[in-house]
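Researcher: Here's the sequence for the chain we discussed earlier.
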Amino acid sequence: MKSSKAAPTKNIGVLCSLAELADGSLRVVLDDVRKGQGETSWSHQSIFTFKDYAPGHLADLAELPENELADFGYYVLTRLLVSNGHGS
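Model: Thanks. This is the structure I predict for it:
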């Protein structure tokens, strides 16, 4: 599959963001977003989930358990598929 091939985007997406909390910990946030009027515009729908990490915990991703990284990818892909009518 060529990555440059145009394909229509589905209506629901997942936005990943990072917030720094007052104590120095980091919050990874996954929000649902809906496709807007423009081809590249999206609007916030709701918070899907978030996870807080203690200060310094994400300083070296090699120290993060592989299953936790895999779970993160699983959550994102599952949310995209289910929200757009694929899978259950």
